[in-house]
Each structure stands twice: as C-alpha cells, then as structure tokens.
Amino acid sequence: MIYLADTANCDQIRDLIKYYPIEGVTTNPSLLAHEGIPLSKAIPAILDCIGDKMIHIQTISENAEDILREAKIYREVFGLKSNFYAKIPVTREGYRAISLVKDSGINVTATAIFTQQQAMMAANAGADFVAPYVNRLDNIVSHGIEVVSDIVKGIKMYGLKTRVLAASFKNVDQVYRVSLTGCHSVTLSHEVFLALMSHPMTDRGVQDFERDGSQIYDIKI
Ligand code: E4P
Asked: What is the pTM of this model?
C-alpha cells in the first residue's frame, strides 16, 4: 500500500516529505480553498515541494467536454507530465469525461465514490485510480471499510488495472482496517499521518534504549 498526502498546505507537505517518502499529493477544491491561495499559485508551490511525485488535481467543470478542456489546460499551464492525475467526480458527465480524458493521454482518478458500483463503472470507463471516501461513508452510518473491500475484490475478480486510492480518513483505525482489504493506496491528512507515525510505547522503548545505550556505546559518532 502506498501513502499520499491529502493536503494543499505546503508547510504540511514539506514536513511529511522530510520524514516519510510519500508518493504524491491529492488536492480538492475544498482543500485548496482552505489555503486561500489561487490555483495558479497553489499548484506550482505544491510542485516545488514534490518534484515529479504524483499530483492529483480535481476538475470543477460540469460537462465532459469542459472537464477534458480543464484537464488539458492544467497539464499545459503547470507543465505536468505523467505524474498528473485529473480527479474527476463520478457524476453522469464525469463518467463520459473519464473516457475522454484518458483517451487524451491524461491519467484519471475517479473521485467522490461512495459505492462499489461507482468504482467498478469508473474503472471500466478507464480510471487509473478510484477514490472511495471512507470517513464520509462512516458518517452516514454506512461502512467505508466494507465499500473499499468490495471495490478491491471487484477489481481483482475482473482483472482490472485500476488501483484503489482510499480517501477521507479521520483516524488511524480506519487506515489500519483499509490496509487489511488489500487496498493499493491511501491519501491522508497531515494530522492522520502524524498519528500513524507515532506510538507512546515506541517513544518509551526509545527512551529506555537511550538510557541503557549511553552507558556502553563508546564509539564516537
Ligand atoms: C481526496 O481525494 C478527497 O477529496 C478527500 O480525502 C476528502 O476528505 P474529507 O472527507 O476529509 O473532506
């Protein structure tokens, strides 16, 4: 399972990259709006932090031709190559756009997925990644992990190349349980990333090792 950062905040991205080899960054209009920086400045700033790692940028157009035009403009304006994924919500026009964008040579991440069938249909339409929203499902008394698990099984069963990029996590347990489904990738907030990387028993163990080691580790480093 690979790990991406779900944030448009460059300080957070830099902080994560310093400590962990994330595979890329996912953004959406709400994350970008939260930073209060226009897209024309926000994406280059993110690219400065991540180099040629994956970047997923969501389209906001309504109809398929406009989504295709939007994705092509982002590729050109931001000088993106194969690391660019156009994130397309799975509306009716979105499904049409997935095929158009994919046929134009741009990678596609189908997003705003809440059912196994949305994911299977997006995969068949050509999506490289499908992004089910785990916590938002849990919040409507549905079961995010089960939906991810059904998608992973469906993709395997039909031999599709599409990968699952589980999104919308609010805690470590959701990430843990998603990882048991065979999910290919997750995208996590800075906060959930930090929570995954720390454990009080690890800190306690390290303190003990430092105390004991300081008495006998006599090689100068
Ligand atoms: C990522 O691709 C999604 O846009 C994001 O994870 C949604 O997360 P949220 O439910 O925390 O807004």
From this structure: 0.95
